[in-house]
Amino acid sequence: MDFELTPEQRAFRETLRAFVDKEIMPVATEWEHSGRYPTEIIEKMKQMGLFGLSVPEEYGGLGADMVSFALVFEEISRGWMGVAGTIGSHSLACWMIARHGTEEQKRLHLEDLAAGVRRTAIALTEPGAGTDLQGIQTRAERDGDFYVVTGTKTWITNARHADPLPVLVKTSVTEPAHRGMSVLLVDPATAGFSVSRDLPKLGYKGTETCEVVLDHVRVPVSALLGGVEGRGMQQVLGGLEMGRINIAARAVGVAQAAYDAALAYARERTAFGQPIADFQAIQLKLADMATDIQAARLLTYWAAAQADGGKRVDMEAGMAKYFASEVALKAALESMRIHGGYGYSQEFVVERLYRDAPLMAIGEGTNDVQRMVIARSLVSGKSKVGW
Ligand SMILES: Cc1cc2nc3c(=O)[nH]c(=O)nc-3n(C[C@H](O)[C@H](O)[C@H](O)COP(=O)(O)OP(=O)(O)OC[C@H]3O[C@@H](n4cnc5c(N)ncnc54)[C@H](O)[C@@H]3O)c2cc1C
Fold first, then answer.
1. What does the pLDDT read at residue 149?
2. Can you give the pLDDT at residue 240?
3. I need a labelling partner for 37 at 20 to 30 A (CA). Which of 156, 179, 306, 329 fits?
4. CA–CA dist 387, 383 (Å, integer)
5. Is residue 190 lining ligand 1, measured as CB closer than 6 Å?
6. Does ligand 1 have an atom closer than 6 angstroms to the CB of 362?
7. Where would I find the Acyl-CoA oxidase/dehydrogenase middle domain in this sequence (predicted)?
């Protein structure tokens, strides 16, 4: 059994760490509170090739393995989770196009997306349907060589920058729901397409999350992902394993940042004539945090390594996402307690971590849904717990 990263993965992590420490950490708190978009950081991420993480090398991407993919989201989220959001849904959409797109669609989009010249996102959720994607209302009706698309999507991260925007639509209302859905790669310059507003959020600043309106948008049939109707649900669900590893890794990064801040503060802050780190009550919190974070990290790398081994990892990725996001929530709160009153101040990083952590329990399927996925996998006999 080998719990080590490969030399390449270790070198990649060191590069990421140096980038996060130098370019993200010093500005994150200030930019977050001033509502400044992290343009310069995004430009550097483009130069590092991070927009091409999930794009195969033959289309100009890094074609990263899943463990390296997790390292990117962990390290960037240690600095600023919102910035990880700018490449999160982008990477998932790139993966979907690379995996399911026609050769023409890959040639048309992947090179630009890998370079960050154009960016992308994923539009699944609607005002009336999130977990229950079969309940979406966005319709695409065939009219000659076009689909006419009408509907509203909400909570779409990066929608303002997406070109194309993959949109989950209903192409049939007579087929069973899961077979009546397709993904269309929508060009945002098409008449009737608009990003109607940015949604105000608790945290996850530094990346916009938007409402998108499609009003009789004419999408050419050539933009149907994979060229065959009715595969949308399958295409989207295939990406969820990757999405859950992404969220698990972000949670590990946020939890690590909360722990790092707590340890540094506890060593520095004195009360009753000694550093508060000398009090056993503080030490117990630090020990619990460190243990939980290491367990979450192992679960995340394990799910990623299993995926790299070519396995379906619905249960493993679900476990990692569920556990790591709960650890992030707990670590942010414990770090805040250790900071005392300063933990409630916007001048300390823990306040941002406390607002960012809950998203990981919601995004890519709520944690209750993860628990149902895990249980289903176990009860059906598809997966077992053990080594
Ligand atoms: C900041 C942010 C960014 C996002 N970015 C994107 C994005 O880029 N693209 C995108 O498409 N979506 C995005 N989302 C949407 C996100 O994926 C959904 O919010 C999430 O899937 C949950 O859906 P919902 O909000 O409609 O909640 P609902 O599905 O309405 O769930 C509400 C509650 O009911 C529970 N529930 C639902 N069904 C069941 C069930 N069968 N059994 C038991 N409990 C159940 C849930 O666990 C939850 O507690 C984003 C959301 C946020 C907050």
1. 98
2. 86
3. 329
4. 11
5. no
6. yes
7. 121-217
Side chain identity at residue 227, one-letter code:
G
Nearest CA to ligand 1 atom 4: 155
* Alpha-carbon separation of residue 358 from 250, 339, 367 (angstroms): 12, 19, 11
> With a 6 A CB cut-off, is 123 part of the ligand 1 pocket?
yes
Q: Give the domain range for residue 354.
A: 234-380
Active site residue 364: yes
What element of type H or E holds 184?
strand 181-186
Residue with CA nearest ligand 1 atom 17: 363
Residue 127 lies in a domain: no
Q: For residue 156, give the nearest of 206, 212, 113 by alpha carbon.
A: 212
pLDDT tens-digit readout, 179-233? 899 999 999 999 999 999 999 999 999 899 999 999 999 999 999 999 999 999 9
User: Where residue 361 sits, what CATH number does that domain have?
Assistant: 1.20.140.10
Q: Residue 2's pLDDT is what?
A: 80
**For the whole model, what pTM was predicted?**
0.97
For ligand 1, the distance from its centroid to the CA atom of residue 124, given in whole angstroms, is 10
Q: Strand, coil or helix: what is 129? A: strand
Ligand 1 near 204 CB (within 6 A): yes
Q: Following CA atoms 124, 130, 131, 133 in sequence, which dihedral angle do they give, to the nearest 10 degrees?
A: -50
pLDDT given for residue 177 in this prediction? 81
Query: How many Cβ atoms sit within 10 Å of the Cβ of residue 344?
Result: 12
Domain assignment present for residue 43? The answer is yes
Pair (289, 239) in one structural domain: yes
Render 138-156 in DSSP notation, one character per residue: -EEEEETTEEEEEEEEEEE
Within this chain, do residues 294 and 220 fall inside the same structural domain, yes or no?
no
Residues of the chain predicted below pLDDT 50: none
